[in-house]
Design brief:
Blueprint (H helix, E strand, L loop, with lengths): L2 H21 L6 H7 L1 H17 L6 H16 L2 E2 L4 E2 L4 E3 L5 E2 L4 E2 L4 E3 L3 E3 L14 E2 L4 E2 L4 E3 L3 E2 L4 E2 L4 E2 L8 E2 L19
Parallel strand pairs: 1-4, 2-5, 3-6, 4-7, 5-8, 6-9, 7-10, 8-11, 9-12, 10-13, 12-14
Helix pairs in contact: 3-4
Length: about 190
């Protein structure tokens, strides 16, 4: 690694630590945060796996990226696909249960709480298939929120805890609630009557 590359890595680590302090009022200090915050461990591992994922001409790099991503998932409880694209100063607070899919794109200065899913819906496999959300800059994703499909969440949006989002979200918006709709039971759902 060259000196400029080392400086770039150190700058990124400093930015991530600052994002942790900004995103978590209980953050005590950089050393403690670097040691105990699983969200930081997950994003740092992701940055390595993503470099492997996009490496050109390095045989086995995608397999190595997937293996490291699975080890990281086991250790942190956070699953970030190496193919996802995540911006700077990204922070996952209380990260257990976070899932970020392969074609997800996440902007800068995004704060994510535990249990968030950036999940896919349809679109089929293969290059060019956008199955996961695109999240803008300075977005907050509340605990347990699920963003499903190739939707776009605009800059400065806030997604409330437990919210299910299946449609685009405008810039500077707050979204709460669940997108499900009620219908009469048909009796064929495979769920017993209580």
């Amino acid at each position: 690694m060259t000196r400029p590359q080392r400086r770039g890595v150190l700058r990124t680590v400093r930015e991530d630590l600052a994002a942790a302090r900004r995103g978590d009022p209980a953050a005590r200090g950089d050393l403690e945060n670097a040691i105990v915050y699983s969200g930081l461990h997950a994003i740092w591992a992701y940055r390595v796996t993503h470099r492997l994922w996009v490496a050109q001409g390095l045989p086995g790099s995608r397999t190595a990226a997937r293996i490291l991503a699975q080890v990281t998932r086991t250790l942190t409880g956070i699953e970030i696909h190496p193919g996802a694209r995540i911006g700077r100063r990204f922070f996952i607070d209380h990260g257990f249960g976070v899932v970020i899919g392969e074609t997800a794109v996440v902007g800068d200065d995004v704060l994510v709480f535990h249990g968030v899913t950036l999940g896919g819906r349809g679109g089929g496999p293969g290059p060019g298939s956008k199955r996961h959300p695109t999240v803008g800059d300075r977005v907050v994703l509340g605990a347990g929120s699920a963003l499903i499909g190739g939707i776009t969440v605009g800059d400065d949006a806030v997604i409330g805890a437990g919210t299910v989002v299946t449609k685009d979200v405008p810039v500077n918006s707050v979204v709460t609630g669940i997108a499900g709709t009620a219908r009469p039971r048909s009796g064929h759902e495979g769920v017993p009557e209580l």
